[in-house]
Amino acid sequence: MFGSLLLEWIFLGVFMEILTKREQEILDLIMKGMRNKTIGDELGMATTTVKWHITNLFKKTGARSRAQLIVLWNNKKSL
Predict the structure, then answer these.
(1) How far apart are the C-alpha atoms of 26 and 21, rounded to whole Å?
(2) What is the sign, positive or negative, of the torsion defined by CA atoms of 3, 31, 77, 52?
(3) How far apart are the first and last CA of the chain?
(4) Residue 61's pLDDT band (boundaries 50, 70, 90)?
(5) Are 59 and 70 in contact (CB under 8 A)?
(6) Interval 37-54 mean pLDDT
(7) pTM of the full structure
């Protein structure tokens, strides 16, 4: 249990450092509840590009859904 908690703290400590500026922007918009098309419109990119960035967010963070991304982000902010 301690090991997994330690890994989570380490992960959360570098969470934003591993994300590109664009991934951070998309994460911020996901946090506001925006859908892919709305995010694309907001950032001036195709929906497929938004999906590509979200896939990269999932790979980099280990999240499997938007909900998990939001939980991870909220956990990081509360540290």
Answers:
(1) 9
(2) positive
(3) 19
(4) confident
(5) no
(6) 98
(7) 0.76
